[in-house]
Fold:
Amino acid sequence: MPDVKHFDPDTALDTAMRLFWRQGMAATGIQDVVTATGLNRSSLYATFGGKQELYRAALRRYIEQRSQPAFSRLAGDGRGLPAVHDFFAELIKARCSGAYARWGCMVSNAHAGGENGDPDIRAALDRHHAELREALRTALAAGAAKGQLRPGTDPGAAADLLALLAYGVNLRSRAAADAGELTTTVTGALDVLGAG
Structure:
C-alpha cells in the first residue's frame, strides 16, 4: 500500500520558500524548517530530500511564482519604456512595502550567498538572469521601435544594465534603502536611455 501523506507538500514547500527567502540558505537549519512547517524531519526528508534539495525546490517555486509572471508581463506589454518604468515601480513597491518588505529577492539573495556554488542552483540563477534580461530587451526593443530610446541605444546592452539595476534594487531594499531613493535612481537610469 502506498504511503499516504498527511500534509500538503505544496503548502510545506511554500513555507520553506518563505523561510529561505527571508533568512537565506546558510542561516536556515532543517530544524527551522521543521518548526515553521510543523512537520517532522522524516516527513520532510521523505518528501523533499535533504536541505539542499528542499532549497532547490523552494528556489524553483520562487522563480515560477514570483519572477516568471513579472517577466512575462514585461515582455508581453508592448508599451516599451513605460512598461519598463512600471516593472521597476512594482519591484520597488514589492521590496519596500507589504508582507515581504526588506526580504529582498530570493534569487538576488542566492547570487550573494554561498548556495550559488551548487551547480543546479547556479544553473537556475543563470536561467533566471537570461529570462530577466530577455524580458527587458523585448520591452526596450518595443520602445526603440516607437522612438522612445535615445538614438543608437542597443536594447541588448541596455537590458544588461537594467538587469544589474534590478539586482541592485533587490539588494539595497534588503538593506532598508528608502523606496524614494530607489525610485530616483531608477528614474535617472531610465531617463538616460530615453529619447528625451
